[in-house]
Amino acid sequence: MKDNETYTSLQLTGLVILRILIGWHLLYEGIAKLLNPYWSSTGFLSESKWILSGFSEWVISNPGILNVVDFVNIWGLIAIGTGLIVGLFTRTAAISGAILLFAYYLNNPPLIGLEYMMPAEGSYLIINKTLIEAVALFVLAIFPTGSSVGLDFFIVRLKKLTRKETK
């Protein structure tokens, strides 16, 4: 399947804009955490009240594990965001980002009866922006625009050239 032949210009433009906007958000979040010497995921994890609350408590209680989680979170956000913006390994970046955001959602979902210490931006019921962004990334993984508009284009071309040379 040739991705660039399956989309109209408007569809491709919309998908690329969505990819870049989500990439910017994730990259910015990663850089903001990196530049804040006091940032830790402890605050977020201590608010966990749903199915991942036991795991979150375990992470918080193990400083070494917490440091690994913080490192992976920061650099994962930066790598995923960068990949989405420049269109490099877009499918991998989109799936990784969706999984990361879905993990955030599972820690602190907007469900009836769950109250959090940190104020929310608005009133949500079941669906919040984290879940919407995670689903949008799954959609972007299905429609990998990087091979049309992004650095993945050059990887696809290189693979095609390599295949022709081996035949």
Could you describe the 3D structure shown?
With 167 residues, the protein is mostly helical. The protein has one domain. The protein is built from 8 helices and no strands. It is globular and about 55 Å long. It starts with a helix and ends with a helix.
Give a topology summary.
Elements: H1 3-6, H2 9-35, H3 42-46, H4 53-61, H5 63-86, H6 90-107, H7 129-142, H8 152-166
Keywords summarizing the entry:
single chain; 167 residues; mainly alpha; globular
In short:
The chain has 167 residues and is mainly α.
- In helices, the fraction of residues equals 55-70%
Q: What's the tally of helices?
A: 8
Query: How many beta-strand elements?
Result: 0
Mean pLDDT: 88
Q: How would you spell out the order of helices and strands?
A: HHHHHHHH
The parts where pLDDT drops under 50 for at least 5 residues are none
Provide the β-strand percentage band. under 5%
- Major β-sheet profile: none
Q: Shape, please?
A: globular
**Head-to-tail CA distance between termini:** 20 Å
**SS content category:** mainly alpha
Alpha-carbon Rg, integer: 18 Å
Number of spatially distinct domains: 1
